[in-house]
Specification:
With 89 residues, the protein is α+β, with helices and mostly antiparallel strands.
């Protein structure tokens, strides 16, 4: 549905914290790298794959409601990761 995008500087701690935060917000998470994540909000279902060697997270939105643009979803995910990264550093 949306093009995949890469988030850089996602170390293991940031990745683990992100997954914990998403679950705490009511998201359903299946798998173990890659993960299928249903946010249970705005119809957003996505996949995420973390690359340990270069600390990147590749995300692709598979489903979303019509009013949730790909750009809006990507910005929200990037903002969440930035906040987590700043809080952990």
């Amino acid at each position: 549905m949306c093009n995949s995008f890469i988030i850089e500087d996602v170390n293991e701690r940031v990745k683990d914290t992100l997954l914990d935060e998403l679950q705490g917000m009511g998201s359903d998470i299946e798998g173990n790298n890659p993960w299928k994540i249903n946010l249970n909000r705005d119809g957003v279902v996505m996949t995420a794959a973390w690359q340990r060697g270069n600390d990147t997270l590749e995300v692709q939105v598979l489903e979303k409601n019509w009013y949730a643009s790909c750009n809006r979803v990507e910005k929200a995910i990037r903002k969440t990761v930035d906040k987590l990264r700043d809080g952990i550093a």
